């Protein structure tokens, strides 16, 4: 992770530190406009006795003050001025009666320290000489004059001019470096150290004495240091303690053309400072890159140009062929690099080289490209060549190889780190890919992007200059010359493409105003400024108005990135400071884990021991504990070996340790300031990192600084950030293959894709906890919760574009007490959701339901008061502070002592104004039809399914109801229905009945309710008054509303709904048979003696008529219903029982068969005797064998003989009419008398049928043509239907005689198929099949319902006769049958 631009070491106690200047306490004073008072003393105001403006100084304080004033004469003017300001402050304290002795003593110590430093620098003598081969040595007089005569000088020197090392010596030569130090900044730490060593060597002074340097973790300066090399970040950090930079009399800003964020801020700061420091000299050094901009920034400062030492460099352009695919593009680039290397080898540059071939530096955009090109070079024909990578993530050992060439020719593959500041030795050729990864921060997406972009012309010139330092060189640019000419001349400054949070924080801390008013060389965009403020607001460093908070002031004093500082502050509250210090230190330095180009897999395996599957941050802690353990147990050499084995950079681990130590000191100071330690930071001891660190606390602390770097996992596996952008977890993370729903990242960067690096799993609610000022809370759907008795609402917590909490129930009263009360009254009381059975609520509910039912009957709109009126009732009685059930209960117990009915409503409270109670007689609760009372219910809600009047019909009573009665609805709705019916008539008819409403009222009054069907009665009335007949078809029923038709709900014995419809006829059709079964079951389920039907239904398992007369019908009472039932004797096989049914036809059929069974039981002994002496029985048994056993044939012959005996003796209908024992005995006598002749007649009927069947089967089994198969199968099915097991007892005797004829019809049908008979047969068969299907369908229905309908049996025989007329007309039937006869019979049966 990038280091914060203002990182610096904590103040050292060396004599060269600005703590010795008066700036040490100046930063804590209030602004000057607040310090000045009317009539207040200025800088020269005396503190002596008798000034007349306050208490006098005592003698000791006066002497001390006078001694300080004497010292000021020897100090430089600006330092003396600073001391005088402090003395003026002491005077004001004296006026307020405060003690000032200690303050005067501190000022004296600072003044004496300034004098000591000045004397030490003055006494340090330096031997100044200039190398004659440096171009700047020629121009040193001109530069010295310019510095002496101008406050700011811009020195523009080419590469190799010597400006970096010689400018401090020129300043020393003209007397600078005595009143203050000569500050010399470098953009990089390595440059500061190396340049300091070079200058010290040239001045013949020990490093750290006359010439020193200050970089992070290392300050090598002393009291007599006159030239101080440092990074620009160190100088910026010193502005916090020494705002006037009084410790310096000269400042040299080197390499200003790099335009880093620190350099731009320093240049703006110096521009504001110079008017207040006329003694301060500033020298800006730049390469030949736009020096005029620096001159203009400092109001036309002079520019001195110095030539450099460069050999000619030939530039060639070799563009790479464009490809649409990224992989192809990488291959093309690698191939172009190989070709360029071969071209440089052939250019003749290696004559003087010891290796025989030139060393080449190749610039590539990233590590992946370096790896690809290295593979391409290894596979090429280039031999005896060492290929070395060079990029920042390499270990120090691998980087050092680049700067120590051996005997072999080398090709160095580098990123843009080799573009400036680094000099790779022995380079004669450069291959420039023309691209680089350039950091760009997007304020819209809040992402630090590292896209591969074409470099600027100035950067390309810097690259080509790498090969012209020792001899003429050759640079091959892998781009088009015309395209290169169109590129921008300079790389955009970092301030235009970086996050400005750190800059804004420092400006606010130094009271420098806002960025738009600060004198930057180039003003940053408003978007970047807004984003910087937003970043600071995220970490609570500034308010929404941009003012510094207490956290912001603390962060500004911390020498780390504001986000990291916020993490440290949060860790103090979370009690995980030791763990956070290790993590923050790791984030502040380069990753110490090395991944060598040739052993990535081995390195990954070594690093796996430190990996935490849930957090990359905790992985740092594992590594830190391992390092601390190894450091404690091993010596220096063993520790380095341990690092190599684990693929760790020893230098970076030491750097990590150094940063941690610095942060630890900072944390101790922070704890002391917060009162969490002793008075001195040294007394605070921080524990070691725990083996099992508190994961939640650690990650919440980190989240406080990186709250904008959270992501929520989507279905695609990507993560969505707070700005709506998506990203993925970096492949090297331990969470890469996990599916964490929420993550936090230390940084989100964009290279080839957008990656989240250094990731941890988090919980969404932590964001709300650590950054409550950033989340938005929306509350919706306030509702009463009966379980708790309180009003709640759903809360949605939003951060940016992410929903941290989508739906969370929270109490609503703290959010909106008045709204909670309204919801409580509306939902708990008006909507009756209050828990418990409050008496007032039960009474109000009963009254409301009663009135609602009355309103539904009359179909009146708004009979009940609306919710608003009911709300007003409770609102007027309940106090304003009541908004939950507990509070209501407490108040109600007290209020009901005074008025027990305080919350009970009256009809006047619930009835809407202008409405009366409906007439109960017009809207009855029950409906009486034929002695049956049906329950009615009403609903008035148009559009719903049960709108109107609903009659509840028990299933067993369905067959007893008259459909016409329901057409009348109820008296109260009759006028509306009649009006609707009249309006549905055609216009020519309804015009006779105008006005229609009055006609409808007259009809309702005239007609007798329910006497006959409504349509019949209304048509008669309208015909009488209109003079023209009206048929039922004239009414357009589709124009009527749904509620104009009665709604029927059919229920079973348990009250469960079976069917709902408004078509009563359809209901009867579909459920009539089930209704009959239910009716009989209900009769049988009653206890014997309940009524006549129950007594009869209890008669079971009888073989004689010993139960008295059997009535044809009985009256049954079921609750409020009075029904007619039909008892009958039912055949149960070996016994009989009494079956009570609701259908007369079924009862008659069942009774006839039951009487015959009872007769057979009476004569069973005689019947058995006759069968034993029946000679034909054996022959018939052989014919009957395929249909059943001989015993079955004997039983069927006996049943047939009984039926023949009854028919011949007393008539065919005699069995059905026998209702008592005497009539039964008449039948018994007839059967006993004619039993033998009847049995012989039965054999005579059975034999021809069985013989015909046998003959027909033989014919069907004969081979036939293939197209006869369908007809043959039809005839086989017909034969099986006629002659099946039990047919002798099932078919009436009169019909048995016709069965041979029906079988013969089939035989003759088959005979006629030859020739053209097949076509004729198909047409006749199709006509017949329709009637057969009707008959079968009806038969299935009756069989399922257990019902017998003699008319269906008669219809079946008519179909058989019709079959004879179709296929064998010569076998004439007794009755001629045609389709019209069948239609009439079917209509009669189904009507």
Q: What's the arrangement of strands in the largest beta sheet?
A: 4-3-5-2-6-7-1-8
Radius of gyration: 56 Å
**How widely separated are the two ends?**
94 Å
β-strand amount: 5-15%
Overall helicity: 40-55%
Number of H/I helices: 53
Largest beta-sheet details: 8 strands, mixed
Residue stretches low in confidence (pLDDT < 50, at least 5 long) are 1-54, 677-682
Number of strands: 34
Global geometry: elongated
Q: Supply the helix-strand structural class.
A: alpha/beta
Whole-number mean pLDDT: 82
What's the gist of this structure?
The protein is of the alpha/beta class. Helix content is 46%, strand content 14%. An 8-stranded mixed sheet has the order 4-3-5-2-6-7-1-8, with helices on both faces.
Architecture overview:
The protein has 1391 residues and is of the alpha/beta class. The protein is 46% helix and 14% strand. The strands form 7 sheets. An 8-stranded mixed sheet has the order 4-3-5-2-6-7-1-8, with helices on both faces. Strand 28 and strand 29 form a beta hairpin. Helix 20 packs across helix 21, helix 22 crosses helix 24 and helix 42 runs parallel beside helix 46. It starts with 22 loop residues before the first helix and ends with a helix.
